[in-house]
Amino acid sequence: MADGDRTGRAAPDSDAIDGSDGFDRAANLLGALSLVVADRAADAVAAAAGRSESGAAALSALLQFLDRPSVDLLRQVLGLTSSGTVRLLDRLAESGYIRREPGADGRSTSVTLTDAGRRAAREVTQARARVLTAALAALAPDERAAFEQLAGKMLAGLRRGPGATRWICRLCDIGVCRGAGSGCPFRSAARDPDQG
Questions:
Q1: Closest alpha carbon to 110 in 118, 102, 120, 119
Q2: Is 30 part of any domain?
Q3: What SS3 state is found at 169?
Q4: Structure confidence by residue, pLDDT tens digits, 51-104
Q5: With contact defined as beta carbons under 8 Å apart, do 176 and 146 qualify?
Q6: pTM of the predicted model as reported, rounded to 2 decimal places
Q7: Which of 8, 39, 114, 176 shows a CA-CA span of 20 to 30 A to 149?
Q8: Host domain of residue 155
C-alpha cells in the first residue's frame, strides 16, 4: 500500500495521465519527493522555531539575508497578506524574537532579530539542514554530485520575475550557496531582491 493510501485500491485507469503532455514517472516522482521533503522540513522548522512554518521562514530570512527589512518586504518574502504579516510579527515580538524599529523613510517600520531571535533562527537553519541531509543520505557521493547539478539546473529554470512572492530562498542557508563554487543557481534573491 502506498504511503497515504488508506484503501489499498489502485486508482482507476481512466483517471491516469498517458504521459503525452510530458508528465511521466520522473515528474510524478519529483512531485512525491518534493512533497515529502517539504512536509518534513516544514514540520522540523516549525518545531525548531516553536512557531508556524511562516514564523520559521521569517526568522530564517531575517538571519540569512534581510537587513532591517520593511514589513512590506517581509510580507513579500513570506507571501503573506499585510494583516497576516502584522499578526505574525506580533507573535514573534511576544516571543522576544523580533523588534520593530522606525523604517528608512520614517513612515515605514523595519524588523530586526533579537539575540533570542537569532538563536531561534539558527535552530531553524539547523533543523532544515538535518532534514535535507537525511533526504540525500540514500545517494552515493557521485549521485549526490549529479543531483546537485541537476537540481541547480531545474531551479534556474524556475526563476520567477520581479515582484515574486514566497521567495524560493526564504529558508535557504545563504552561506552554503555563497561558499559553493557555482553559487546560487539564479543569483539569490538576497542579492537581487526583484527576483524572488
A1: 102
A2: yes
A3: helix
A4: 889 999 999 999 999 999 999 999 999 999 999 999 999 999 999 999 999 888
A5: no
A6: 0.78
A7: 39
A8: 26-179
